[in-house]
Design brief:
single chain, three-stranded antiparallel β-sheet, 42% helix
């Protein structure tokens, strides 16, 4: 048997009673110490008693008792009423008005008791004191009386969450496993004698199947089979804390489990990098031997756990944070090739020389788009920067700074002009066709500032010759000439 007090807020006798009396939950129901025969009238009677003490708060006590499935057949209505009566008497509510309902909506059979804490005769509000221990005592008595399956004894050296877990599941909690005398002895020895963090993590994993990770502002032990099962290290020994552990090893504890794993295997990772002949071989060795992935992360490379199935994505650690010799630029210089994540990046690597020439020599965005299209590449916006992409599938893309760290949207906008998407070539002629063969118009068409209009070019062009100045004056005159007709919305081209 397991009993539990469910705290209630304020005067909510009707709310709790109506909840436990729902038809889809209850099997049987009865009232105690009430003159009424039905539940609805009993609730009204109890509320009337509570209203006699309007200044008091918390006049309702909600109690539950659960039973093991093996004991279900032994629970007749008479037995249940006796159990409920004994439990109410143990906490001082034997003479109080109560509504009881058995529930079958859970995997385990249980009943709820809603008690009016106001005594119906004396109108005193009875408060309980240390009811947990009183209920534990009466339940052990009732288990012996009716031959029920015994509840797992609670160890009061355990935390409340661990005690609740063991009572509900009848299984050993993680805290109990750590505090077993034989395990505690091994654990203490490991914590006291380990000389490095790597040694500590290895011995804990090999001898006890546990690890240590950051948890809030401290450290926690965790089960290697399920890292979500944790227990604070200070809960085992108050002399163990994050500050003392870091002080002992003279280095901060890793931010994540994966970061600790990388530090423990740092020498092997460096050895694999030195023995590999290229990025492809390195990625294959890391995956097969250590379960580590390698990919682009910003302007550098990052390791990630191939076995991390977090729906929010894996945790990344930059390669140069582990060792400077593992940075993207260092490995690129060593292998004499660029790192490629996808087939697109492999294509970019194969055409690197041509690609570099296009990016460095293009004078307009239009020219760049057209030249890139000839080698099967498209450039487009991606976030706050630019990315190369597959023309047939723009979702497959690669940031331009992956290929060359000196390339960025800002750099090219300063060099050319504000980024422009590809525009199909169109016929461009001046407003007055007599200037189409002029040297100034030809210079404008060939100029890298083709992205501006003819008007903007004339107004901003520096060092116009005499013919240019005459052309500019002519345009200005035509724009303000009275022969311009607003109704026809056209210029008089008789000049």
């Amino acid at each position: 048997m397991i009993s539990k007090h469910i705290p209630s807020n304020g005067d909510c006798f009707r709310i709790v009673s109506e909840y436990i009396l729902q038809d889809n939950k209850k099997e049987d129901a009865w009232c105690v110490n009430c003159n009424a025969d039905d539940m609805a009238t009993a609730i009204i009677e109890i509320e009337a008693t509570q209203e006699l003490k309007p200044d008091l708060k918390n006049k309702t006590y909600h109690l539950t008792a659960s039973f093991h499935n093996e004991d279900r057949k032994k629970l007749s209505l008479e037995v249940l009423k006796d159990i409920e009566k004994e439990m109410a008497a143990a906490i001082g509510y034997e003479q109080h008005q109560r509504i009881v309902a058995t529930h079958i909506d859970k995997d385990h059979f249980h009943f709820h008791t809603v008690i009016n804490k106001i005594h119906p005769m004396t109108l005193k509000n009875i408060y309980t004191w240390k009811e947990y221990y009183k209920l534990q005592k009466v339940m052990r008595k009732l288990e012996a009386k009716y031959d029920f399956k015994l509840e797992t004894p609670r160890d009061h050296t355990l935390s409340r969450s661990s005690r609740d877990f063991e009572s509900k599941t009848w299984e050993e909690s993680f805290e109990s496993y750590l505090k077993k005398p034989e395990n505690l002895e091994v654990l203490t020895n490991i914590m006291d004698t380990s000389k490095t963090q790597t040694e500590l993590r290895k011995r804990l994993a090999d001898e006890l199947g546990i690890g240590i990770k950051r948890s809030g502002n401290g450290l926690s032990f965790y089960d290697l089979n399920d890292p979500k099962i944790t227990h604070k290290i200070s809960g085992i020994d108050k002399d163990w804390s994050k500050d003392k552990v870091e002080e002992k090893f003279l280095e901060p504890w890793p931010e994540s489990i994966f970061e600790g794993y990388l530090k423990d295997n740092k020498e092997e990772i460096i050895e694999l990098a030195n023995s590999s002949k290229g990025f492809k071989e390195l990625r294959k060795k890391l995956a097969e031997k250590l379960g580590i992935g390698l990919r682009h992360w910003g302007t550098d490379l990052a390791f990630y756990d191939l076995n991390d199935h977090n729906p929010k994505g894996p945790f990344f650690i930059r390669t140069n944070d582990l060792e400077e010799s593992l940075s993207k630029e260092s490995l690129k210089e060593k292998y004499c090739e660029i790192f490629t994540d996808t087939a697109l990046e492999e294509h970019l690597a194969e055409n690197l020389e041509v690609l570099t020439n296009i990016m460095d020599t293009s004078k307009t965005w239009q020219e760049m788009h057209e030249r890139l299209a000839k080698i099967g590449i498209k450039i487009r916006r991606s976030g706050g920067d630019l990315a190369f992409c597959d023309p047939l599938n723009t979702k497959v893309n690669s940031k331009i700074y992956y290929i060359n760290k000196n390339w960025s949207k800002k750099v090219f906008e300063e060099k050319i002009c504000k980024y422009q998407t590809y525009k199909r070539p169109r016929r461009r002629t001046p407003l007055f066709s007599k200037y189409i063969n002029s040297a100034i118009w030809s210079a404008f068409v060939d100029n890298k500032k083709m992205c501006i209009s003819w008007r903007e070019y004339l107004l901003t062009a520096i060092g116009l010759d005499a013919k240019g100045q005459m052309m500019l004056s002519f345009y200005k005159k035509k724009l303000v000439d009275p022969l311009f007709s607003k109704k026809s919305n056209s210029y008089d081209k008789s000049f």
